[in-house]
Known about the structure:
Elements: H1 10-18, H2 22-25, H3 28-35, E1 39-45, E2 56-65, H4 91-101, H5 107-120, H6 122-139, E3 147-151, H7 157-161, H8 167-170, E4 171-175, E5 188-191, E6 198-199, H9 207-211, H10 237-245, H11 252-257, H12 262-286
Antiparallel strand pairs: 1-2, 2-6, 3-4, 3-5
Organism: Aphanomyces astaci
Protein name: Helitron helicase-like domain-containing protein
Amino acid sequence: MDPYVFPDSPEMQAFKDLFRQRNFIEHTRQYNAQFNFTSIGTNEVKHSGSGPKTYCIQGQLTHNIGPLQPSLNRSGNLRQPSFAQIYMHTSEEQLQHRRNMFPAFSSRYTATIQRVMDLHNPLARTYATAKERLRRAEADGTSGGNLQIVLKAVGGAQARTHNLPTVAQLAVIMEGDGSEPTEGRHVVLQSLNSNRFTAIRETNPLHDALQFPLLFPMGGPGWEYTMTKTDGKSLSLRAFFNYWLQERDGDDFSDMLHRSSMLFKMYTTVGFVRVETNRLRYISQNGD
């Protein structure tokens, strides 16, 4: 597979330089939490003692994504946005929301990440487009309440070459109430007026891009069923994950991952659970 190399641009170089700053590396999990699209549901076992810090979870692991806007509070006003909902705001508003999450952290680091997400992340750009369509609908006197985003599976040539996905390949913005039929096992609907949270399965090719935007600022690549090895045989989720864990020269993802401290531990733990969940699902559906 080709190396995961970022564009040669000033904002991307500033982003990569963050992973050489000690104050940033020590808090990669928190900076990632400022920008992730999905919430994580599990019982995290807190670290205690004087040994190395660990990321340990117990029980089922879930990742969920909510509606485009938060629900209303008792006063009839929108609650504070969280996770992907923050991307429905302007860049300045997003920065303020993210800074409020961890006020003691570096605003400069957060602004550097925000700049990269605005310019290079196809998921963030999809939400920006949805935000603009909602703004136009409100200006026209309509509520835009049927606006929804369909997150699609990445297929075809993308799966074979592992190139980074484009906005059009990741998502489509459409009108609907969420009851419309959709094709493909990796499609997620997000309705504007829905309070329902949608679970992201371990086999969804956008799984890592949604949960670890700090490691995947370009939105991918992700594993899917149609991927094959050079010999034409199917590429398993386990083999795909093992590949990304290896240290590789000239690969920006590899360099950042192995410098990311606690975020590295979280990524590997979640990856192991994904592989095991997928294996157990296969056994339950196909027998031993």
